[in-house]
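Bit of a strange request maybe. I'm writing a small parser for structure token strings and I need a real example to test against, not something I typed by hand. Could someone generate the tokens for this chain?
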Amino acid sequence: QVQLVESGGGLVQPGGSLKLSCAASGTIFKINDMGWYRQVPGKERELVARITSDSSTNYADSVKGRFTISRDNAKKTVSLQMNSLKPDDTAVYYCNAEIIPYYRLPSYVAQDYWGQGTQVTVSS
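Reply from user aminoacidic:
Good idea to test on real output. This should exercise your parser:
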């Protein structure tokens, strides 16, 4: 089965940095877009950043200039480098990927997969 496993969350002071990583595993034919979302209690999950298979990126306005998303297609990983962190960045961060598993071939319709979430807390 296909899985996304995240790592790298934790507690950091305002102005600090953290790097989140997410690795996809399983019998994967292709990975399309990958991304990071975040959610705080009582609010909807929101997009943080996304990256296409050819590394085009888009970011939420609130993180532009501070966060950088990247991917390694050979390793099936996506990362989020977060700099100049603010208390408002505190949330559970989720990895997302549009994946075509081998078992779905010859259908080339990608399925949406999510990681388990990793807590990021920005506080002094």
